[in-house]
Design a protein that fits this description.
This protein has helices at residues 2-20, 25-42, 45-72, 79-83, and strands at residues 87-92, 100-103, 106-112, 124-131, 134-139. With 142 residues, it is α+β, with helices and mostly antiparallel strands. It is rod-shaped, with a radius of gyration of 27 Å.
């Protein structure tokens, strides 16, 4: 009888996953179904709970992240996050107080990350961060 309860619980959890889509309930449902099998084979409730916990935890920590990456794809950075690490070229002298760079075909205000750097026009730089509407840059090769 206990195995049937485990089995019903597992199926209900898997059905509830259709509403959430987060791949947690399906992992718990799979753990419950394996727990039902352990209950049917051994008839020990403590063992069934231990099997349920181990399988659910293992699936949630190991299988779920891989499944989410496969289903949802890679995270694509956009807006400001996509600019960090991008190469740029100095168009007007850049120092700790300001200057201009050409970043992905657009003019940006910029300032040097290192207060001692003075970057002349034509210098290749890397965007280290975006602070408001200003690119904070570091000279390549320095």
């Amino acid at each position: 009888m206990a195995a049937l309860i485990w089995l019903i619980g597992g199926v209900l959890l898997m059905l509830a996953e259709l509403l959430s889509g987060d791949f947690v309930l399906v992992m718990l449902g799979a753990g419950a179904i394996v727990g039902a099998g352990a209950e049917a084979l051994f008839g020990l409730p403590v063992l069934s709970v231990a099997v349920f916990a181990a399988v659910s935890l293992g699936l949630t920590t190991l299988a779920r992240p891989a499944l989410r990456r496969r289903i949802h794809g890679a995270v694509v950075q956009d807006n400001v996050k996509a600019l960090v690490g991008a190469p740029a070229v100095v168009t007007t002298r850049v120092d700790q107080h300001g200057g201009r760079i050409r970043l992905r075909g657009q003019e940006w205000s910029a300032r040097a990350l290192d207060a001692t750097q003075v970057l002349e026009p034509g210098t290749a730089v890397t965007v280290m961060e975006i602070s408001g509407a200003t690119a904070v840059v570091w000279a390549d090769g320095i």
